[in-house]
Amino acid sequence: MNFFINNFITSPALSMLPISLLRLSLVLSLLVPQAAQPQQNSPAEPSVNKTPTQTSDSAEKTRPVEIGSGGNIKLEKQYRAKAESLFEWHAHLLWESRYVTEGRDNLSGKSLLSVSSEFEYNGLSIVPWIADSPDARYSEFNLNAVYGIKLTDGIELYTGFNHIHGRENGVSTDDNEVSLDLSFNKIKKLYMLASIYHSFEADGSFIELAAKRGHKINNETRVSLKGIVGVNAGYITDGHKGLNHFQLTTNIAYQPDAHMEFYAYAGYNLAINRDINQYAGDELLDDFLWTGLGFTYRF
Q1: CATH number of the CATH domain containing 40
Q2: Which structural domain, as residue segments, surrounds residue 38?
Q3: Dist CA 206 CA 229 (whole Å)
Q4: Between β-strands 73-74 and 66-67, what pairing exists: parallel, antiparallel or unpaired?
Q5: Is residue 30 part of a domain?
């Protein structure tokens, strides 16, 4: 996010961590519905939850989305989405060693805790995303509305709107974004994604092209490798335009039953054409390694 770039004030991590965990716990407790019942339809092909196969029309038309770091749309492989389509509601808790968006380490090496959920009906997903840093005076709230349609077998289109409210060192900022994502899943074990999102505040866009390869170790464990190329088209107003960064991430996910999933990832970011002498927005664009640990519960 281009408005979370400079002037971060640090505070001791140990003293701030309990406060951040308490904030996120309170938010999560407010989000949990009192009586969420699973849907009866099962996916059209076997998935990791070992449910008997049965065609689900709603799962075939569109699949649920998740919100990744920075509140951006993150489309996962079909096995995971079809497993989630069995349930009306699910929640995600994620810790990341850095807050990384647009190839930038937005909090200068400080970590981020986030919680997100999703409420889906007939292809329309409402996804709140809430984050807080244990190490910095920083928090963010995103409210996403995403609609997906299946164009052809293996090709899906998603349009989204995202309202962003950030608070850093007591100063609040707001932005609104629109996004367009095209997913391609017609090549065996290879998943590709083209994404563009536009900021009304910055009056600019950012483009990402991604390819992901997954491998099933057993019924409970899967690993994947993902590469992303980012292009700045005025989204980072004070950063250089054009090729921006390349990221390579590896992920491992363990799903002991149909309701729970634990996952971890490690990523490396490589800056492209960084020029801090001419562009102040390139200061946080750098080469770095970061990691994440997450937990998903499906109701």
Answers
A1: 2.40.160.40
A2: 13-298
A3: 11
A4: antiparallel
A5: yes
